[in-house]
Structure formats: C-alpha cells, structure tokens
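Intended use. Records such as the Membrane protein entry shown here are meant for training and evaluating sequence-to-structure methods. They are not intended to support clinical decisions.
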Amino acid sequence: MARKEPAADAANPGRLKQIALTYKMTRRADKKIGLVLAAVGIVTFGVFLAIGFLIGHPIYLGILGLLLAFLATAIVFGRRAERAAFGQMEGQPGAAAAVLDNIGRGWTTTPAVAMNRNQDVVHRAVGKAGIVLVAEGNPNRVKSLVAAEKRKMNRIVADVPVHDLIVGTGEGQVELKKLRTTMLKLPRVLTGPQVTATNDRLRALGDLMSNMPLPKGPMPKGMRLPKGGPNGR
C-alpha cells in the first residue's frame, strides 16, 4: 500500500502538467476558453445554489452544484480542446490517421495502405460498419487510390461493405473534426467474430509501409517513391 501512494503522488503532477499544457495549446486557437469555462462553472453552480435556497437545502444543492459545475466545465473544456486540436491539424499530412487512432474501441486502423508520389494517402479502418477507406490529399488524385483499394477489397472480402470518405472541406468531403462522428454513425452490419475474420483476411494484403523496400534508418534526403511502387500514379 505504501508503495502505491508515492506512485500515485508522482502521477498527479504529471496529470496537472498535461492539463495545463492542453489548456495553453487550446488557448492559442480559442482565446475565449478561460471566460467560457468560468461562465459554465459559475452558472451551473449558481443555478443549483439558487434551487437549494428555494427548497430550503442550500448546502446539499450547493455541494451538488459544485460537483456538477466541475463536471460541466471538464466536458466543455474537453470538447473545445478537441475542436482546437482539429483546427490545428486541418490540412496537415497524416491528420486523418491521428483521428483514426483515437476513434475508440471496436475499430482496427491501418494507416497508409496506399500512397502516391504526391503524398496523397489512403488509410483503412475495420469495424462493425465494415471497411472504411479514409483518403486525404488532392480529391481528384485520391479517387484513383480509393478505387484501386476497393478492387482489392472486392477480391478478398467481397461480402463486407466498403465505405470511402475523403477528408476535406469541399463538397462531398468530410471535415476532419467530423470524421470520427461520421464513422460512428455508419450502420453496424458485422458481428464481432465477423470483424475479426475480416481483419485476418486483410492482413494478407499488408500495408504500404510494410510492403515497400524502404532502407533502415532515416530516409535519404530527396528520396521519392518508385514509379512502379504500390498504387503509384
């Protein structure tokens, strides 16, 4: 027991430091974050305290209001921090892969299953909704990459639905901040065992990074993907 307490004490400063760092990063993109959090906390606490005076239990409702104010503030902070992070990541290479890595349980993601010399890239996610191909890059160029991946899917997992999403702000595209929500709204058509079986069959495909004959260590300066490489266009 005595050994666990120092470990817990050491972890707390780390968590506080992480929260402070997240707040600073969020404030760079959201200048009103401090005022918003203060307003949420004060209003929530004030409402419950006022109700407490009305019904004659200000202490009980005050304590409850304080706890709920903290909870409401944490929820609002989390959402605005997420929104700020997406805003900073928007348009950056690999941003979609970062979102897919945090999509949640039940999904297996494989980044960069296809890429061309212009660094347009397609990522793959497998879940109960089936297979989702998420492309980022030039909308006109990634369509050919997505089409090639779909043909692969049809040869190996023809009985599994395949969805494709292009990350961007144009017509018919999905904004980065809405990518996770969009995927979670897809209809669930597979069971757990079917998802596992689909992943096992897809492992035969591998991914771009494991199939490419890349040298060990840092990539040489100026190196480009070979014209005959996987899915090269």
